[in-house]
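quick q for whoever's on today - can somebody do inverse folding on this one?? i tried earlier but teh output was garbage lol. tokens:
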């Protein structure tokens, strides 16, 4: 098992897939949070009083984002990596299909696809969580709880980005929250 983990670690280092996966994680978690914020706001201003409708729409949306992310990222990443492999083969005048590098590129495509699919689904799932507590809490509180969780997700993503870029975590987190608040305002104005 340890050998396999070390091998996978080498694959990630060889392909630099962790950098791509990290970028996609943030971008798609961000997309998932903002998308479900829009769904929650639209449902709230449409007068939806059944939490199951929001839960179902949120879970269905997060699953669709996940499936789209996994399949789209896998196909796109695989195509790019195969093209790079073919260019390398042309330069080396050698078939590289059964090499460490070829296996690493396949592994990288799978990892990037999984991260791409899971990140929006995860953030979207977090935002619908308050609706599971209705009727213990009112729809009103579930709505605001969902938006607050969305802002927490965005803040966390901002802090994560700041750690990558060696910037101020609080500033980066607040910048992300400002995008969330702007989204809330615009979507609320349109939905009313």
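ok took a stab at it. sequence:
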């Amino acid at each position: 098992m340890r050998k396999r983990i070390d091998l996978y670690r080498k694959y990630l280092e060889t392909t630099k897939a962790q950098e791509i996966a990290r970028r996609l994680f943030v971008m798609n978690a961000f997309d998932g949070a903002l998308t479900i914020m829009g769904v929650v706001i639209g449902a709230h201003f449409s007068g939806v009083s059944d939490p199951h409708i929001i839960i179902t729409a949120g879970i269905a949306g997060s699953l669709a984002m996940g499936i789209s992310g996994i399949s789209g990222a896998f196909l796109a990443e695989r195509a790019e990596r195969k093209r790079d492999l073919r260019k390398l083969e042309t330069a080396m005048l050698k078939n590289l299909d059964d090499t460490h590098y070829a296996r690493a590129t396949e592994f990288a495509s799978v990892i990037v696809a999984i991260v791409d699919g899971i990140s929006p689904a995860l953030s979207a799932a977090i935002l619908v969580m308050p609706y599971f507590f209705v009727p213990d809490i009112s729809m009103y509180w579930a709505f605001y709880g969902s938006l607050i969780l969305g802002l927490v997700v965005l803040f966390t993503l901002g802090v994560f980005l700041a750690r990558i870029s060696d910037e101020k975590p609080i500033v980066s987190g607040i910048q992300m929250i400002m995008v969330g608040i702007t989204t809330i305002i615009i979507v609320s104005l349109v939905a009313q």
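fwiw The chain has six helices and no strands. also The longest helix spans residues 51-92. so keep that in mind when u check it
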